[in-house]
Amino acid sequence: MFFIMQKLKPEIWAAIIKAAEAVFYKEGFKQATTRKIADSVGISVSNLYLYFKNKAQLFNEIVTPFYNTFNDGMAKFIDHKDDKDNVDQRIHQIVGLFKKIITKDKKRFVILFAKSNGTQFEKYKTKVIALIAAHIYHEIKSDLEKELINIIAGNLFNSIIEIAKISKSETDINNNVESLFTYHMKGIEYFI
Q1: How many whole angstroms separate alpha carbon 10 and alpha carbon 18?
Q2: Separation between Cα atoms, residue 77 and residue 138, nearest integer Å
Q3: Could you give the count of Cα atoms lying within 13 Å of 149 in the half-sphere of its Cβ?
Q4: Residue 29: how many CA atoms within 13 Å on its side-chain side?
Q5: How large is the C-alpha radius of gyration of the chain?
Q6: CA nearest 158: which of 173, 137, 180?
């Protein structure tokens, strides 16, 4: 009995990743199928399985590097020792972080935070919102209820996701993120 090993081609791997990213962005993890991805590439599903054992592995291949980069950026922002003279600088840094991340990896940002139901990442948005809420709570030093601050943080982060979905160009992203943060920070300044 002889088995012929098929040589995996980097260009097919790259085409699968690109097609899967488009399908996950459009439909989300739950609605995406390996058949849709394989059809987008022009290969059979069995050929796709030579590269990725299942849809979850393919999703993880797309999302994990972005998740790691985003997580590192958020950790650097959250883990700092602010003083009152530095608040504007910290706001400028987080605005810059979101502009850069969305401009560079808009689709993966949306996939991670809006299209990952049914994956190991589905609760990550809730974790990020909780981190932002804790950061705001620490910064404002007010007697606001934590639940209200969670709502404020959730509104902010969900608005960022919507900006990523609707922005057509880098200029749109920059203007929209800047406007959103200006709006939110002016409101939060009331409590500082």
Answers
A1: 12
A2: 13
A3: 20
A4: 24
A5: 20
A6: 180
For the record, the structure tokens of 38 come out as 């394989």
**The CATH homologous superfamily of the domain defined by 7-53:** Homeodomain-like (1.10.10.60)
d(CA 148, CA 13): 46
pLDDT 10s digits, 64-87: 999 999 998 888 777 765 555 466
CB 160, CB 184: distance < 8 Å: no
How far is Cα 73 from Cα 67, in angstroms, rounded to an integer? 10
Domain ranges of the chain: 7-53, 63-189
Residue 189 CA to residue 139 CA, distance in Å, equals 10
pLDDT in tens, 106-161: 999 999 999 999 999 999 999 999 998 888 777 776 677 888 889 989 999 999 99
CB 133 within 8 A of CB 153: yes
